[in-house]
Design brief:
The complex is a heterodimer of chains A (155) and B (506). With 155 residues, chain A is α+β, with helices and mostly antiparallel strands. Chain A has a four-stranded mixed β-sheet. Chain A contains seven helices and four strands; from the N terminus they run H-H-H-H-E-H-H-E-E-E-H. The two termini of chain A are 22 Å apart. Chain A has two domains: 61 residues; 79 residues, Glutaredoxin (3-Layer(aba) Sandwich), CATH 3.40.30. In chain A, helix 6 runs parallel beside helix 7. Helices cover 48% and strands 12% of the residues of chain A. Chain B folds into four domains: 84 residues, 3-Layer(aba) Sandwich (Glutaredoxin), CATH 3.40.30.10; 210 residues, 3-Layer(aba) Sandwich (Rossmann fold), CATH 3.40.50.11540; 88 residues, Ubiquitin-like (UB roll); 90 residues, Up-down Bundle (de novo design (two linked rop proteins)). Chain B is globular, with a radius of gyration of 23 Å. Chain B contains 23 helices and 16 strands. Classes of the chains: A alpha+beta (155), B alpha/beta (506). Chains A and B meet through helix 2, helix 4, helix 5 and strand 4 of A and helix 1, helix 9, helix 11, strand 12 and strand 16 of B.
Chain lengths: 155, 506
């Protein structure tokens, strides 16, 4: 686990690399999340100062977007598409199966911290649904059996 | 021996990476030297991973390839499809925008040029901005994002607007279910988009461009970023575009999972580092867009269609299509469909042809119930309206919209009330919160649909009334168009909404 000095130093690096970028807040938030897996609260103060906005404004932006997390996710993140094309191929049944197998609802993480389950709205894999994003990798035609295999690999 | 294996996300999702490893292993085992090129997709998703072997006669297709079957690439076998170009799906298309997608190495500017790329830009560099604008106006190109606004008029507004600094922004926030054309072109032929953006810059006097893409598209972002880097190194981008003395800089930005940022003003706010809330119009983004400066905001496919318009001339493009829908449209055939994928054709095809002939009906083999055209904000079209020709006005006349030309097919097991509820739920999740009809209406919509589901017939007129309010009173298409899927489901499939009422009566 990083201590707050490390965090501050890393965020300074990120902020420095975005100097002169027009409308830099989203790229900065992405870079911070890529570094830490989430947006630490202390980071927001530092980012706000750099961007010359209030902490509330930075917080408002961060919380507007589904991708940004205030807390770390599980070791593995399983995102299942909920959109219509995938629904027409059984995404709802697949989602129920996943929730049951993992004992989770959307946005929850298993107690051992290993798997986070999230909904996603369209991966552009609409002709090979149901689709999933498994730790950032695309998977198509996900059946309950295939999902069990994926989950097994994560445990 | 040159072998082509797509790096398209759909091919990857269906196992392309494992196929690459297996081909390498098999070639090594046989002592054959192979060069593997990772191309884009030809658009036949049911054949992915579609592997091709280059021969003197042309490229032989094999698919859907599996790691176990890679021996067939060397020996032939049942997965052999013959020449890819001769497949009926390929021959039946008019590929203008997607002419190179799946054909070339997406990151080779030399191959791009060898296949007709940069011809449009080279022509545009010899023209004045006003002449380029006129060419795009004459082509009849309209916004492929869904609104269908004439691209040339938007460009003309930016061209005529005073300002030292102007911007070209590509809306690549392709969040609509059933659509993947933007993703495919970014993964398969990114230079087409870059070329289109530079031409837009020449036309309007803009020297800076942004591509606003999605975090849900990691593969497209990887290819796009690499293509921009290649473009800088090879002098396509930068202070001296192709030695012309004109400048164009390009930056890729990635959203963060907010659907509403596909709306152009929300996108601009997001690009500026703000919450992705919708702005009231006027002022038009063309006059006060990114950072308050004149900005072209165009969809990926609109911009990616510009190079061929400049290369072949406006008249050629305008000779295709029907009525006021000129040129070609990349249809994305998706959902419960046997032969799903991307099919580029001139406007005017009927759903009957698209769904039943080209798409081959449902994947499940059951009868088609309805097709949602234009993403989550598009209407569900019943089989009885399948004769409507594919065009902007033709669909508007049926209380529908073509949107980004994505088609989600559902079979007869689909519960249309569940889809209607989902549309409201999605709107509630994704609403930016700025206007009341969308922010509150969507939540009330879910509640009202739950009342109907529980057998409360009195809630049906309430739902209709709510949809009227959302349609008329919302600031943007999210709240304003959510009534399309809801009302089309209710109008065409009323029985799905009264199942419990009947059960309660019995």
């Amino acid at each position: 686990m990083l201590d707050s000095v490390d965090i501050a130093a890393r965020i300074d690096e990120i902020l420095a690399s975005h100097t002169g970028t027009e409308g830099a807040l989203l790229p900065i938030l992405h870079a911070v999340q890529d570094s830490f897996g989430y947006i630490p609260e202390e980071a927001l103060v530092q980012i706000a100062r750099h961007q010359n906005i209030s902490k509330a404004e930075a917080y408002g932006v961060m919380t507007f977007y589904h991708d940004f997390r205030a807390k770390p996710a599980g070791t593995h993140v399983l995102k299942l598409c909920r959109a219509e094309s995938c629904q027409s191929m059984g995404a709802d049944r697949l989602a129920s199966h996943a929730k049951e197998q993992l004992g989770l609802d959307w946005h929850q993480t298993t107690p051992d911290g290993k798997i986070t389950l999230e909904p996603i709205f369209c991966l552009g894999l609409c002709a090979c649904g149901p689709a999933a994003l498994v730790d950032g990798k695309v998977v198509g035609r996900v059946t309950p059996a295939k999902l069990d295999q994926i989950v097994k690999g994560m445990r | 021996m040159r072998i082509w294996i797509p790096r398209d996300a759909a091919a990857k999702a269906l196992g392309a990476e494992d196929v690459v490893a297996a081909v390498k292993a098999e070639a090594a085992r046989r002592g054959i030297e192979v060069t593997i090129t990772r191309n884009g997709s030809r658009g036949m998703v049911w054949l992915e991973p579609l592997v091709e072997v280059e021969t003197p006669e042309g490229r032989l297709g094999f698919g859907p390839m599996t790691p176990e079957d890679v021996g067939q690439l060397f020996d032939g076998g049942p997965l052999s499809l013959g020449l890819t170009e001769d497949l009926p799906w390929m021959k039946a298309q008019t590929r203008l925008t997607f002419a190179r997608c799946g054909v070339i190495d997406p990151l080779s500017l030399a191959e791009y040029r060898a296949h007709g790329g940069l011809k449009g830009l080279e022509r545009a560099l010899k023209m004045t901005g006003a002449e380029v604008v006129q060419e795009v106006l004459d082509s009849g190109l309209r916004g492929r994002g869904g609104a269908g606004f004439p691209t040339g008029i938007k460009w003309k507004t930016v061209h005529d607007a005073p300002g030292e600094r102007k911007y070209i922004v590509t809306n690549a926030d392709e969040g609509d279910s059933g659509t993947f054309a933007d993703r495919m072109i970014m993964e398969g032929d990114p230079f087409t988009l870059i070329e289109g953006m530079i031409i837009a810059g020449i036309a309007t006097g803009a020297t800076k461009g942004f591509i606003y893409s999605r975090s849900e598209y990691p593969d497209a972002n990887e290819v796009m970023a690499a293509a921009i880097a290649v473009g800088r190194v090879e002098g396509l981008l930068g202070q001296n575009v192709l030695g012309s003395g004109k400048a164009f800089e390009l930056e890729l930005r990635v959203g963060a999972g907010a659907y509403v940022c596909g709306e152009e003003t929300a996108l601009l706010n997001s690009l500026e580092g703000k919450r992705g809330t919708v702005r009231a119009k006027p002022p038009l983004p063309a006059l006060q867009g990114f950072m308050g400066r004149p900005t072209v905001v165009n969809n990926v496919i609109s911009l990616a269609s510009v190079p061929v318009i400049l290369a072949e001339g406006a008249a050629h493009y305008a000779s295709l299509g029907i009525g006021r829908s000129k040129g070609t449209i990349p249809l994305q055939i998706a959902g419960n469909v046997k032969y799903g994928g991307l099919f580029e054709a001139a406007f005017g095809l009927t759903l009957e042809k698209i769904v039943n002939e080209i798409g081959g009906g449902t994947a499940s083999g059951r009868p088609v119930k309805a097709v949602q055209v234009g993403g989550p904000l598009g209407a569900w079209i019943p089989v009885s309206q399948f004769a409507t020709p594919f065009g902007y006005e033709e669909y508007a006349g049926q209380n529908a919209l073509i949107g980004h030309a994505g088609l989600t097919i559902a079979d007869d097991t689909a519960d249309m009330m569940a889809f209607a509820r989902f549309a409201m739920e999605f709107c509630a999740i994704e609403s930016c919160g700025k206007c009341t009809p969308c922010r509150i209406g969507a939540v009330r919509g879910v509640e009202t649909l739950d009342r109907i589901a529980a057998g409360d017939r009195a809630a049906i007129p309430l739902l209709t009334d709510l949809c009227e309010t959302m349609k008329a009173g919302s600031l943007c298409a999210l709240g304003g168009f959510t009534p399309y899927p809801v009302m089309s489901a209710l109008t065409h499939f009323p029985d799905d909404f009264t199942t419990n009422i009947r059960e309660a009566a019995e």
